[in-house]
Amino acid sequence: MTWRAEYREFIRRNHPDRGGDPEAFAAGLAELRARRDARFDAPVVGGADPPRGVRGAARRVRRWYTRRFRKPRVR
């Protein structure tokens, strides 16, 4: 189950407007949000810096051109 589906299911079952306990609801939300935020604790690793100047511009134009005028694949 995805985080969003789990979150929505928790709210459906425990929301105070639907008869749930407000303290338990707040504690459950805090736990779910902590688990969600823990997924993004990994360090961000970037690739090499893109080439600059004429070489970089030539590479960008070449990529654009091949993407723009690529023939569609027939399956």
UniProtKB/TrEMBL annotation:
InterPro entries: J_dom_sf. This is J domain-containing protein. It comes from Actinokineospora fastidiosa.
